[in-house]
Amino acid sequence: xxxxxxxxxxxxxxxxxxxxxxxxxxxxxxxxxxxxxxxxxxxxxxxxxxxxxxxxxxxxxxxxxxxxxxxxxxxxxxxxxxxxxxxxxxxxxxxxxxxxxxxxxxxxxxxxxxxxxxxxxxxxxxxxxxxxxxxxxxxxxxxxxxxxxxxxxxxxxxxxxxxxx
Length: 165
What we know:
The structure is a single chain. By secondary structure, the protein is of the alpha/beta class. The chain has a single domain (2-154), classed as Vaccinia Virus protein VP39 (Rossmann fold). The chain is 20% helix and 27% strand. Strands 3-2-1-4-5-7-6 form a 7-stranded mixed β-sheet, with helices on both faces. Strand 1, helix 2 (19-25) and strand 2 (30-35) form a beta-alpha-beta unit. The longest helix has 11 residues, at 82-92. The chain is globular, with a radius of gyration of 15 Å.
């Protein structure tokens, strides 16, 4: 998906060992990895990448990293609780471009046991909430395979060459 979108700015919340971050960042002009573990900084390498040791709340404190660029693609895979996923999303919304896509992990647990906090948690509740947020301004599509991936985008997209309605 990142190879097709070619985001100007990619942000990943919860980079763990950097596998997804490195795979996506190579398709972005600029990439920011955010994690509460300071040891994760070693997974953020390259002249076009930056690391924020903290949470999604801290992205706004580092506006100098964002410069005038808005986020085109984000991946949220931090704490797997519904409340944390929702907070991460809401913290990024002010920085999202009008055509941004936000991906969420752990949104389709295989069974009830998979909803334990150390696995998928209750992040599966997020897609339904998101589609109701802001008077339905967001669409969510979940890939129905464990552990699940949900892609969210604005529902009011217009083609750039069409006149505004």
